[in-house]
Design a protein that fits this description.
- This protein is α+β, with helices and mostly antiparallel strands and about 575 residues long.
- The protein folds into three domains: about 220 residues, BirA Bifunctional Protein, domain 2; about 130 residues, YbaK/aminoacyl-tRNA synthetase-associated domain (YbaK protein); about 90 residues, Anticodon-binding domain (Rossmann fold), CATH 3.40.50.800.
- The strands form eight sheets. Strands 3, 7, 8, 9, 10, 11, 12, 23 and 26 form a nine-stranded mixed beta sheet that branches. Strands 17-14-15-18-21 form a five-stranded mixed beta sheet, with no helix packed on it.
- Helix 1 crosses helix 12, helix 2 packs antiparallel against helix 6 and helix 2 crosses helix 12.
- The chain is globular, with a radius of gyration of 29 Å.
- The mean pLDDT is about 95.
Length: about 575
């Protein structure tokens, strides 16, 4: 492929809204172009990478007996009403009416449509198990699109769904998917961190996320370096050590002017943050929720969301808090009314705590939850953080950041039960089909590869998914140099290699900078000086150094390079 005939562009400057390396280089290299917030057009350079990732994923899905299908993105709301998600999901699900005034959705995921397809075909245990997968555009009306392809509104997803007669059969297939995902990510140069995750809108009881460990990640991961425990911070569990002091001391009101934060109250009263308790307030179904956690921890909204089975948790305003007898900044459940109090399990047996006195400028010392207020629930609602104790081995947990590459869920019968997807057992008994779900965002994986593999000049694509395999650069637009470049192109393409020839009338520096932005694994430069000796410049993208090789040896060296 001659660059003069290719559709491309490159940018010299970093786009003003791009901060992550993947966003910067995918924009500067002409892989993607924003069309709207969180919606991108894919240029030929990016499309080639995307299709190679798709091919690699497809091979792994077929290897575990997956069958490819293609389902619509525009779906009737009736299907989503059957599963209960039409009303359960918030504004991220784009709803609209068609010309016949029917309620429709743009699918953000395909559990309903896939379950509908399977109930159309499957009637007997003899037809199970089966795994269906597709590559399909999804639309999620994301409130906080960011990071280029990392968090978008429209995206290409590989989603797979398996259907089984027993939990044991699902478990067996789940392990196959787990291994297939590891294969996929390793083939693009990523060693994934696999963590337990929240099942969210997908439902089910077991889920894992495959993460790229990177400082630019939007998710926080909790990891034990001693025993291997790993979980998304949203749901990570940890061992609590309740603060205890003199339980015989009665609560004492003390003046704490202007001390509305945990840091301020800790300094003023000379106590550790773990010896305090703080309230966080939400409105849920018209009632105030008072969540109480140790002062050194934060409330996990995901844990609380799951506990309440809430569609939305809305932070409460000051007026709602005051109506229930509490004072923002100096609040506690002591003396409160008309509120549902949920305290973290780390406070259940705590004594001698500092808590708000529900009076501006005052706190209580020597508080004991079991003694000082009784109308409350106990649950795991605190968020794990660096230094918390591992739930398995009890040693210190570490915190890192990550980008979600893919996820797998054991859905169980959440969708099949509500949508009537059943099968007849050998005893002619009707049972709901047991399901699993497995997703990979293809564009996000493309961006994650760049996050994982780049230098100061551009992406360093792994050989498996690079847009081209070899770039031949004619250092000057000289007929003799172009003739050699053309000869190398034909020779390499005849041997099955994908070749991009930079035949532009541009300075060598411009060509080499663009070559770095395209990240092609191997660059061969044809210049007058080398050509005089029958040689060309050979430079792998991962190397800083160039060497001269004989033109006659180029094909054999390229073959050797790609066989390594």
């Amino acid at each position: 492929m001659k660059l003069s005939k290719f559709f491309y562009t490159t940018l010299r400057e970093t786009p003003s809204d791009a901060t992550m390396p993947s966003h910067i280089f995918l924009m500067r290299g002409g892989y993607i172009k924003p069309l709207s917030t969180g919606i991108y057009s894919m240029l030929p350079m990016g499309f080639r990478v995307l299709k190679k990732i798709e091919k690699l994923i497809r091979e792994e899905m077929i290897a575990i007996e997956g069958l490819e299908v293609d389902l619509p993105i525009v779906q009737t709301a009736d299907l989503w009403s059957e599963s209960g998600r039409y009303t359960a999901i918030g504004e991220e699900l784009l709803r609209f009416k068609d010309r016949n005034n029917h309620n429709m959705v743009l699918a953000m995921t395909h559990e309903e449509a896939m379950t509908d397809l399977v109930r159309y075909v499957v009637s007997s245990y003899k037809q199970l198990p089966v795994m269906l997968f597709q590559f399909k555009t999804k639309y999620r009306d994301e409130a906080r699109a960011r990071g280029g392809l990392i968090r978008v509104r429209e995206f290409l997803m590989k989603d797979a769904y398996s259907f089984h007669t027993s939990q044991e059969d699902l478990d067996k297939h789940y392990d196959l998917e787990y291994k297939a995902y590891q294969n996929i990510f390793r083939k693009v140069g990523i060693e994934p961190v696999v963590v337990q995750s929240d099942t969210g809108i997908m439902g089910g009881k077991v889920a894992h996320e495959f993460m790229l460990d990177t400082p630019n990640g939007e998710d926080y991961l909790i990891i034990c370096k001693h025993c291997g425990y790993q979980a998304n911070r949203e749901i990570a569990t940890f061992k609590r050590t309740a603060h205890t002091g003199n339980a015989d001391l009665g609560k004492e009101k003390v003046a704490t002017p202007n001390a509305e934060s945990i840091d301020a109250i800790s300094k003023l009263l000379n106590v550790e943050a773990s010896a305090t308790a703080k309230c966080v307030f939400f409105n849920f179904n018209g009632k105030l929720i008072t969540a109480l956690v140790p002062g050194n921890l934060e409330v996990s909204e995901i844990k609380l969301h799951n506990l309440l089975k809430a569609k939305d948790l809305i932070p409460a305003d000051n007026e709602s808090i005051e109506k229930c007898g509490m004072v923002p900044g100096f609040a506690s459940p002591i003396g409160a009314h008309d509120t549902r109090v949920i305290i973290d399990s780390g406070l259940e047996d705590a004594t001698d705590l500092v808590m708000g006195a529900n009076e501006k400028g005052f706190h209580f010392k020597h508080c004991t939850p079991k003694r000082d207020f009784t109308d409350y629930e106990v649950a795991d609602i605190a968020e794990a953080s660096e230094g918390c104790k591992c739930p398995k081995c009890g040693k210190d947990l570490s915190e890192t950041r990550g980008i979600e590459l893919g996820n797998i869920f054991k859905l169980g019968t959440k969708f099949s039960s509500s949508m009537g997807a059943t099968f007849l057992t050998p005893e002619s008994k009707s049972e709901p089909i047991i399901m699993g779900c497995y997703g990979i965002g293809v564009g996000r994986l493309m961006a994650s590869v760049v996050e994982n593999s780049h230098d100061d000049f551009g992406p360093i694509w792994p050989k498996s998914i690079a847009p081209f395999q070899v770039e031949v650069v004619a250092i000057a637009k000289d007929p003799e140099l172009l003739e050699v470049a053309d000869k190398l192109e034909k020779e390499l393409e005849s041997a099955g290699f994908e070749v991009l020839v930079d035949d532009r009338e541009e300075r060598a520096g411009v060509k080499f900078k663009d070559a770095d932005l395209w990240g092609i694994p191997l660059r061969i430069a044809v210049g007058k000086k080398g050509l005089a000796n029958g040689q060309v410049e050979w430079k792998p993208r991962i190397s800083k150094d160039m060497v001269l090789v004989n033109i006659a040896d180029v094909l054999s060296k390229v073959k050797e390079f790609y066989q390594a």
